[in-house]
Amino acid sequence: MKIICNQKLLANKVGTVQKGVSNKTTIPILKGILIETIDNKIKLIGNDLELGIETFLDGEIIEEGSIVIDSKLFGDIIRKLPDSFVEITTDTENNVYIKCENSEFKIKGHSSEEYPKLLDVDENRFYEISQNLFKNMIKQTVFAISQDETKPILMGELLEIENNNISLVAIDGYRLAIRSDKIENFIGNSKVIIPGKALNEVNKILSEEGNFKIAFTDKHCLFLIKDTKIITRLLEGEFINYRQLIPREYNLRVQVNTKKLLNSIERASLLAKEGKNNLVKFSIRDDNMIITSNSEIGNVYEEVPILLEGEDLDIAFNSRYFIEALKIIDSEEIYLEFTTNVSPCILKPVDEIEYIYLLLPVRISANA
């Protein structure tokens, strides 16, 4: 194989497929990137058998061929080369020669014959979705995925498509995040569980403009983002029936400025972090929400103006869980809906965005 391509473009594409390479694998060839020529294009693939990423770049193909090169070493070399053209050549013993201006490298590669192929997915069964919309859907839910490896099903998100409506749902046992919206090219109902790792990588590749395509098989999900293909294995099992967790009624509702509430809780959390569970207490009275936190090193008092509909309430939460939700809400004002001080709180934007964040309170003693 002999190819010539632009260093900056190659570095960018290598960085993309490296997201599909696992350093923890015990299979040596999976630590590499597959480079091959196909249809006058240069194709790169990273694949750890759970997540596979394929992308293409333009270049001059002098001699066709393929090779597997150690991902980390190859990526480090390409990123350090000058902004010029890179010539990559291989020989019959799988040696790889890399030349760029006055730099020359010779590294050992591997035959591509044992490299696992990516799954083919029927591209006629694609949903087409706005990149910007799906990027926001991931951002507003993925932080609520469980990190508990004993509950692998909760380390993914439920993606539901029903009657022109698409939803992403994440739950970790303490909180629930749901982001929904409409899609135009509805081709049937779907319900799958996508690993959080895959969604994080998809989020990095999605841009702010244009559409991308998504399709499913029984065990895999395919994202097609311009010239990049991402295939991930789906999580198997039954996702929690999240709809039954959402209260249908509330006894009081607070309308509050998102930024003011976030800033107050962040300040209160400076002391809450010194406690055992990041505890902050809300005392909701008339037109104010009083936020307090007490620890061995001191206490803090914050007041936030609100519009209150309903009874007074004292309730406490893990400050980190509240902050993480407030940070990803773009709406200027939000509603907080409460039933009792031991029932979940529901957070919703005041505007028309279809977002629900449910958070369980922390029990507090009567004299706390």
Automatic annotation (TrEMBL):
User: Cross-referenced SMART domains, in alphabetical order?
Assistant: POL3Bc
Q: Which InterPro entries match?
A: DNA_clamp_sf, DNA_polIII_beta, DNA_polIII_beta_C, DNA_polIII_beta_cen, DNA_polIII_beta_N
Ranges in coiled-coil conformation = none
Task: Provide the DNA polymerase III beta sliding clamp C-terminal domain boundaries.
Answer: 243-363
Say yes or no: keyword DNA-binding present.
Answer: yes
Domain DNA polymerase III beta sliding clamp central: residue ranges: 128-239
**Entry similarity comment:** Belongs to the beta sliding clamp family.
Give the protein name, as stated in the record: Beta sliding clamp
What lineage does UniProt assign to this protein's organism?
Bacteria, Bacillati, Bacillota, Clostridia, Peptostreptococcales
